[in-house]
Amino acid sequence: EDQVTQSPEALRLQEGESSSLNCSYTVSGLRGLFWYRQDPGKGPEFLFTLYSAGEEKEKERLKATLTKKESFLHITAPKPEDSATYLCAVMEYGNKLVFGAGTILRVKS
Amino acid sequence: NAGVTQTPKFQVLKTGQSMTLQCAQDMNHEYMSWYRQDPGMGLRLIHYSVGAGITDQGEVPNGYNVSRSTTEDFPLRLLSAAPSQTSVYFCASSYSPGVPLHFGNGTRLTVT
Predict the structure, then answer these.
(1) Chain A residues whose beta carbon lies within 8 Å of the beta carbon of residue B104
(2) How far apart are CA A40 and CA A29, in angstroms?
(3) Cβ–Cβ of A34/B4 closer than 8 Å?
(4) Does the beta-carbon distance from A43 to B90 stay under 8 Å?
(5) Through-space distance between the first and last CA atoms of chain A, rounded to whole angstroms
(6) Pair A58, A83: CB distance under 8 Å
(7) Nearest-CA neighbor of A62 among A72, A79, A48, A76?
């Protein structure tokens, strides 16, 4: 069964304390991996797409990486405004999109 | 550009009632989809459409109907609401299924 597992479920950081979120997946054929950010009461907002192992994408304090079995979202020197739920989604052959349950990130000043 | 607009934002229904969740996009996207989001679970696909007049079932279609008469609109109909349909519903669109989705801000539905 295709699965996308995100860990940890929740993460509390102090402002400036760098960390990583994990997205591990088991799908039959990866076409792409997407990261989204979701603020309370809002819809998910697209951050990155990764297509192949070894690929990396960066945006401000966020950096996404991809291996054959997992992706990491690295957060460097986070600020309180980085607090959100981060969702990972994997697209496999046939355009089936499978979402993880998300990681809730809280950054305290 | 409004993007993806969903109405209403909140709705309370009694068991057995029917209603339509509205979704409209102004980006001329061919692909539109409906997801539900429940605590501790990933977004799950209900129905999707690859263009006007074409719809198909997703992972959890039971109890829901859709139609796509125009490129812009993709309403979701609940035929006879059940407490298990209490959830947050998101509409999303994109140029094609393989590219990142644009999401609306959701409809929070409670069925009592």
Answers:
(1) 43
(2) 32
(3) no
(4) yes
(5) 41
(6) no
(7) A76
